[in-house]
Design goal:
2 domains; Immunoglobulin-like; mainly beta; disordered N terminus; 4-stranded antiparallel sheet
């Protein structure tokens, strides 16, 4: 069982790289000439949708990403997801299905025109659920990816003045961010006949949505920014919390584990802890983007579609203290730290390439000492439980290695 120790909200002050970041840093970027609006990651490749098409970027080494093949098509401001051997891209004219069987060379495999502008897509099983702007929700069968076809539709009431911008699917429900019509919850138990079962009004424009457990996290333009909606009873969704984003212009949201990742066109990337879903708190941010339109999360890395700045890769390293499980025999970043007579000793890595910088944290996650391989004097520290954390190198795809040590006097 993993042990968690932590962490007051904003108390994650663990060596931010600069005043423009907290608990994460830029490790790689490429394609500064591109204008990406969406990104999805699978294996060693990031798949980026930009104003003029869809491309593959090799990210096996996050410090040195390299642009691969590019396929032209009218994406505009759509989103993309990867499922199986395909990428599904919401485009101005419909849903395009890209084969990524050759990961570095995506090619169009299927296309389905939608009645409205495809703004977002979520895939579950053999169906793709598309937020189709003023046409509501389109359900597309992708059982034959080469010949996708619309099999069901849901349109909100005309008086609701909705324009579907975002969609998330969880279990038997689709959650539609429907602009001034708020959050619409739609039963997709029968995908050919989607039926609304509940709705939750929002102050302004419901734009994107992510779902985790019994909560939907809704980006609401020009309002509080992020709204937390309880969906434990899908027929009666209820607003239960919010988080004030700095610019109210967030464009994408991803839920991953105990964290929520938000891309804001003007304010960059914000990472919020949702350990307490009703009270999201800031855990990390990065504010050196031109226009952060979309993002994807893979292990400790965040991939940002930065319109005007290309693809940016961020390493998140300070969202809490987590003691890792049994270390791998090959993990030389942090082996058995020991304390003898007020001296904390760290072994050196077997190779300079594998050596990572380390620091000593207290139980609240605050940095108390920068550590080096070999002996470190800790005799002046108060007795108690501490954590030694090795920040992963830029070329590592694993999380920070963390080990607990007890200082006794």
């Amino acid at each position: 069982m993993k042990k968690f120790c932590l962490l007051l909200a904003v108390a994650c002050w663990l060596s931010a790289a600069s005043a423009d970041s907290l608990n994460c840093r830029l490790v790689g970027s490429c394609g500064a000439s591109l204008d990406p609006v969406a990104v999805a990651v699978k294996g060693n490749y990031a798949y980026v949708a930009d104003d003029i098409g869809f491309g593959a970027i090799l990210v096996a080494d996050p410090q040195r990403p390299s642009i691969g093949a590019h396929y032209s098509m009218p994406v505009e401001e759509g989103r993309t997801v990867v499922s199986g051997g395909y990428a599904y891209v919401a485009c101005a004219d419909g849903l395009r299905i890209m084969s990524i069987s050759e990961p570095g060379f995506p090619r169009e495999y299927g296309f389905c025109r939608t009645p409205g502008w495809a703004r977002d897509v979520s895939v579950c099983g053999t169906y793709a659920y598309v937020a189709a702007h003023d046409s509501g929700l389109c359900v597309i069968s992708i059982s034959d990816p080469g010949h996708p076809v619309v099999v069901g539709r849901y349109a909100p009431p005309v008086e609701a003045c909705g324009e579907a911008h975002g969609v998330a699917v969880n279990g038997s429900y689709a959650y539609l961010a429907d602009d001034y019509a708020g959050l619409r919850i739609i039963s997709i138990a029968d995908p050919a006949h989607p039926v609304e079962v509940g709705c939750c009004d929002t102050a302004n424009e419901a734009y994107r949505v992510a779902v985790s457990g019994n909560y939907a996290y809704l980006l609401d333009h020009n309002s509080a920014g992020l709204l937390v909606v309880s969906i434990s009873d899908p027929a009666h969704p209820t607003g239960v919390g919010s988080y004030e984003l700095p610019r109210h212009d967030a464009d994408d949201v991803v839920a991953n584990g105990a964290f929520l990742y938000v891309a804001d066109v003007e304010a960059g990337v914000y990472i919020l802890s949702i350990s307490d879903p009703l009270h999201p708190v800031l855990a990390a941010y990065y504010d050196e983007c031109y226009c952060a339109f979309g993002l994807a999360v893979d292990e400790s890395y965040v991939y940002v579609a930065d319109w005007g700045g290309g693809l940016k890769i961020l390493l998140v390293y300070g969202a809490g203290v987590e003691e890792n499980g049994r270390p791998s025999a090959h993990d030389s970043r942090l082996r058995a730290p020991t304390i003898i007579r007020g001296v904390l000793s760290l072994p050196a890595a077997s190779s300079p390439k594998l050596q990572a910088s380390s620091c000593l944290l207290d139980a609240a996650g605050r940095k108390v000492l920068k550590l080096k391989p070999g002996p470190n004097d800790v005799s002046r520290l108060a007795p108690g439980v501490y954590f030694v954390r090795a920040e992963p190198s830029a070329v590592s795809r694993g999380p920070s290695a963390v080990r607990k040590v007890v200082l006794a006097k």
